[in-house]
């Protein structure tokens, strides 16, 4: 049984959620269940293995510094952020924020259109 999440609840005018999941955050388990439901030839463990393999491929590609493009969904890209000045909001003391790589996501026009219709 799924534990309660602190994710925001769906509003009354939001589209109905499938019976298999709550509104808010989508989990790997829920994606695997959707694959299992959509493809009767897959067992539950095969669906989970499939989802894990796809996500692992996306992660390893991003870690390698390459972009991931999923037509009809969007693009994931790795971006280098330089060091910048920051401050501790509690104390107000200035501190540098170190340089790092971050993953960005840009939704495709298809996804933007789908989202705006709901």
Can you put this structure into words, describing what you see?
This protein has 118 residues and is of the alpha+beta class. The protein folds into 2 domains: 26-66; 67-118, HU Protein, Chain A. The protein has 3 helices and 5 strands; from the N terminus they run H-H-E-E-E-E-E-H. A 3-stranded antiparallel β-sheet has the order 1-2-5. Strands 3-4 form a two-stranded antiparallel sheet. The two termini are 29 Å apart. Residues 1-18 have low confidence and may be disordered.
Helix and strand topology:
Elements: H1 28-38, H2 44-63, E1 68-70, E2 74-81, E3 84-87, E4 94-97, E5 100-107, H3 109-117
Antiparallel strand pairs: 1-2, 2-5, 3-4
Helix pairs in contact: 1-2
């Amino acid at each position: 049984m799924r534990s309660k999440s602190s994710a925001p609840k769906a509003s009354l005018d939001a589209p109905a959620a499938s019976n298999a999941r709550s509104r808010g955050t989508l989990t790997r388990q829920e994606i695997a269940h959707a694959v299992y439901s959509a493809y009767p030839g897959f067992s539950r463990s095969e669906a989970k293995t499939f989802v894990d393999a796809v996500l692992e491929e996306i992660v390893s590609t991003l870690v390698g510094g390459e972009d991931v493009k999923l037509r009809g969904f969007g693009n994931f890209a790795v971006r280098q952020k330089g060091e910048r000045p920051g401050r501790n909001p509690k104390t107000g003391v200035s501190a540098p924020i170190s340089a790092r790589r971050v993953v960005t996501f840009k939704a495709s026009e298809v996804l933007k259109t789908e989202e705006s219709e709901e």
